[in-house]
Amino acid sequence: MTEASRLAEYLRPAIRSERVLGAIASVPRDRFVPVGARNQAYENVALPIGSGQTISQPLVVARMLELLELRDSDRVLDVGTGSGYHAALLALLAGEVWTIERHESLSSEAELAIRGLGIDNVSFIVGDGSRGLPEHGPFDAINVAAATGASVPQALEDQLGPGGRLVAPVGIDGQHLTLIRRGEGRLEATTLEPVRFVPLIMQDD
Which domains occur in the chain, in start order? Predict the structure, then answer.
């Protein structure tokens, strides 16, 4: 059994989606962490990846993927590429992924890691993730891997297509995973478990 498969089995008691567990088992997390931290790559912990950013705890990543209820044909926006691990998993669960990162060095490293795994349905963009990518929207799902503060940026909500799902860490004094669905003409938000993410930093105009 591979280390990635063992990680998936470790997460199984908390994650019900077999598709998500299958993706976790298929992606070597050690490819997405700095060399000096690879001995911890399969532990259920967040790890620093440089530029003040982290690769998120595997359980939280899996939970966010499960909440998005991804389909093979979905078009997905990933805000906060970071290491690229989240984007790689999204790519196995959806049809097409656009991932945006404000740090060019992280975006480049993530692209190398993902391309090295033969994944070719991810587009990499360097920019302000809080603005989304309206030129490519609407999206069936939006994954926000950085804390949004008091609320999800309006631009991201606006790019959520009919029936779309968005998951993000929301809150100031304490962050909670929040699931937003676009129902019949309106957005419905559900506040879930507490989490801790680095902040979503918006670039100046």
Answer: 3-195 (3.40.50.150)
Predicted TM-score (pTM) of the model is 0.95
Segment 84-135, tens digit of pLDDT: 999 999 999 999 999 999 999 999 999 999 999 999 999 999 999 999 999 9
The span from the CA of 134 to the CA of 32, in Å, is 28
| Pairs from 127-130 (Cβ < 8 Å, separation ≥ 24) | 127/100, 127/101, 127/102, 127/203, 128/100, 128/102, 128/202, 128/203, 129/79, 129/80, 129/100, 129/101, 129/102, 129/200, 130/79, 130/155, 130/156, 130/200, 130/202
Q: What is the pLDDT of residues 124-175, one digit of tens each?
A: 999 999 999 999 999 999 999 999 999 999 999 999 999 999 999 999 889 9
Kindly write down the DSSP assignment for every residue of 99-158, as one continuous string. EEES-HHHHHHHHHHHHHTT--SEEEEES-GGG--TTT--EEEEEE-SB-TTS--HHHHH
Most distant CA atoms of the chain, gap in Å: 49
Mind telling me the catalytic residues?
56
